[in-house]
Amino acid sequence: MSEIPLPDDIEALVERAIAEDLGDGDRTAQLVPDKTTQASFVAREPFVLCGTAWAEAVCRQIDPAIELEWRFADGASVKSGDTICRLSGPARGMLSAERTALNFLQTLSGTATVVRRFVERVRGTDARIVDTRKTIPGLRSAQKYAVRCGGGTNHRAGLYDAILIKENHIAAAGGIEDAIAAARALNAGVPVMCEAESLNEVQAALDGAVDLLLCDDFPTHLLTKAVAMTREYRRFNRAQTIIEASGGISINNVRDIADTGVDRISIGGLTKNLQAVDISMRVDDASASDSPGPVHSLSVKMR
User: Fold this and answer.
1) Can you tell me the distance from the alpha carbon of 106 to that of 45, in angstroms, rounded to the nearest whole number?
2) Which CATH class is domain 10-118+275-300?
3) Catalytic residues
C-alpha cells in the first residue's frame, strides 16, 4: 500500500502515555539485571498491523539504545504466531517500554483490523468506508491514521474543518433551509454538510446545494430513492454532492447499504467500539543473564 502520512502529535502523545505509566520510575524493572537483551513482539491472532511509529517513539523516549527491526509495516495483514518485530537493547528499558508500546500497537491495530473487514465487505461497490468523530479522547489523529491503514477514508478531523448540520442544529436554527443559509453566510471556506432523516429533508438539503448529504438511519428502499435524487441533482446542476449513509451500520448490513449506490458509509463503531488485538512480547531471558544455562524464550505479558 502507498505510504500514509503520519500525524504530527506522536511524540507528545507518547510522552503523556509514558508519564501516566512510569510516574517517577519503574520499580519492577529494577529487579532484572541491567544487561542487553533481545525480545520479539508476537501476534496471537490474525489482524492488520498499525502503530509501529508509536511503539518506536515509546522505546526511543524511554531508552534510545533500544533497537527495533520490524518484520511487517503498518497496513500489513499478519497471522497468529507471526513475529512482528525484533527488539534489542537494555533489558530494563525494554521492560519499561513494553506495556505502553503494546497499548498503542494493540489499540491501533484493532481499529485498522475492523476497518479492513468493512472495506472487504463492500469491495466491488463504489462505497467508501468512513470514520467519524466518535474516537477515544486524545487518540483521534492516531485512530484516523489507523482507519487509513485499514483502507478506510477519514471524515472531518474536528469541528473546525467542515460544517456538519445535524438534527439539533436544524432544530435550533428553525429548519434545514435556515441552517444552510446561516452556514453559507459564515463564508468559512469549508465544506457544508447536512444530515437528513427523511426524503423531504433530502430534497431540502439538495436545494441548499450542500457539499455532502448525510442520510441517517434510512432503510435501504428509502436510501435507494435518496441516491436517485442526489444523482439527478448532480446531473442537472453539474454538482459534485456526495451522498453518505450512517446509523445502524453493521458488518451484516453494510453490503446491502453499499449496493444502494451511496458514495460513502460512515461508521462510528470503527473507532468507538474497538476490540484491541492480542500481541505479546517474548523476552529471551538467557540473553539478559550471565548464567550459562540453556537459551529459551520466556513469554511475558505485562498487565
Assistant:
1) 11
2) alpha beta
3) 99, 134, 166, 195, 216
